[in-house]
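Chain A, query sequence.
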Amino acid sequence: MKGWFNIITAPYLLLLILLAPLFTTGQGYRPDKVSKKAAQLYEKAYEKAAAGNNREAIDLLQQATDADENYADAWVALAKLQAESKNYPYSLICFRRALSIDAEYFKPYLLSYAITLGGTGDFTKALEITNRYIEQYKPTGTALETAQKRKKNFEFATQQEKSIVAPTDKTIFAPKNLGATVNSKMAEYLPSQTIDGRQLFFTRRVDTYNEDFFTSTTTRPGIWESAAPVKGSLNTPQSEGAMMISQDGEWLVFTGCYRPDSYGGCDLYISYRTPSGWSAAVNLGAGVNSDQWESQPCLSPDKQELYFASRRAGGFGGSDLYVCKMQENGRWGAPVNLGPSVNTPADEQCPFLHADNQTLYFTSSHWPGYGDDDIFFVRKQTDGSWTQPINLGYPINTIDREGTLFITADGKTALYSAERKDSYGGLDLYSFELKEKNRPYPTRWVQGRVTDKKTGKGIAATLELTDLTTRQIISKVKTDSSGNYLLTLPTGRDYAFTVNQKGYLFNSDQYFLKNGISDSAAQKNIVLQPIEKNAAIVLKNIFFETNRFELSPASLTELDKLVTLLQENPTIKIEIGGHTDNVGKATDNLTLSDLRAKAVVDYLQGKRIDPSRLTAKGYGMTQPVADNSTPEGRALNRRTEMKITGL
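Chain A, predicted structure.
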């Protein structure tokens, strides 16, 4: 299907040009002197190639070179057809055979030879041959432009090789086919997974003009059940593709082309998981789509941002990457261009935002690279801007046009589509391990349900993940109508985790991930208490140094949540209670707990909360909630509580 994803394959060169000899020469190789049988086989190969039957053309050319081993034109044509099939090692053998027959006659083919060398990863030799082509053959016009572009690519590649000194990361690029339960004789591509890695979604070309969305599940790593079309109303005879599943598996965004409700050639659509399968596609509307090409959507892990590629007016040129942000009313805001640190006058496509909500992968035909479209990544900075793109390097990037990657939550495993020797037919889905320098941040996730303490019913609440050091909100997620949620937690930071809903006391927790994670997933069901007399919560993100009562700066996030609660509920009165473990003298602990409670009250008064609404009381070690005989129990007993004393 044309339009939605235009980089899956690209012809190497026009075959009719490939198979036609450029000139004859009066000395050395003489095309007019080849054997009659070889020439006839060559002509038949020409006809087969013109009809698109490359495999038959290759077979005929092999017969031609067998009939006349000095048939240079047949060797060159065979080399180019093999290169088009990405069989670069065999192509190289054919080119070298033609070169050995007549180096002078071979000059017009030096650039094709250089490109094949690049296809095998021999960039130093490829650069040398490209320079020879420019100096000796002296191309002009488009041929010169092509040569100069390839020269730039090979110079970049050789510089990258020189910059790698005794690499400590021994990760080998070794793609593994996902197997016959996923792949078929048809083409499979554009894989994505839910964050737990148990559900795989992808596109399969079911016939020449139609693609459908398929899914597979796993209960053991690397073992996939037989793939089947997604259930529901999503697959249609209409044009649909470029699909991405949300991390929680509840939304599916994709591209539909030339549909009756489209605003342009290709638009972005969404489908929702229902008990009976996936809902019928819904166009994301004129606020997202334009009268131009929109494609390749990707949701952020919190489903608050939608990234995609578009050729709409006002960009930097070609296809640019954009983002829409979810508004309070539940609608997508206007698309915002990601700016010149990502977009260029050429094409940027295939955005994928990792579960860390910070690392964005995409393809570009402009930023320095190895070939047509390379894969790059950028990281979102604290001010919302993006770092300069980093090329993923060889052999992920090659002289050919690369497509999209999907990277699992652990940051180590990448999924992509490729046509390799062990493919079951055309493009297959593969996995491989990323080198450490190209990895996003490993990401933990928490999922569960938010309920009302009294009724047990689910609550539509807001969950916020805040960096305790910078106080930057990393994620802001809303539960569904039943109270279910999923929240991702990238490593490398310590977080405050709060759950808010008007009419309830907020719930708080913390996740200390600055030094990595021990496990990837956690289940946390959260109970919110309605605002009523004697309702109480533990303020888990209030911090003090040992034996000190000065508030730590990391406490400000929680303290400001408490300020907001009191401002939104101006009649409630509260008590701040300080509690300690049983280490030390009881009198000292009582004094310390009282001073800590007063420190919180002083902060609230400093934020213009009426002192008559506030009480501070230290309880020392008199009200333990856990066993003081263990470090874990003592940590729970050292706490600050808030209780409603009046309404």
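The mean pLDDT is 91. The first strand starts at residue 176 and ends at 177.
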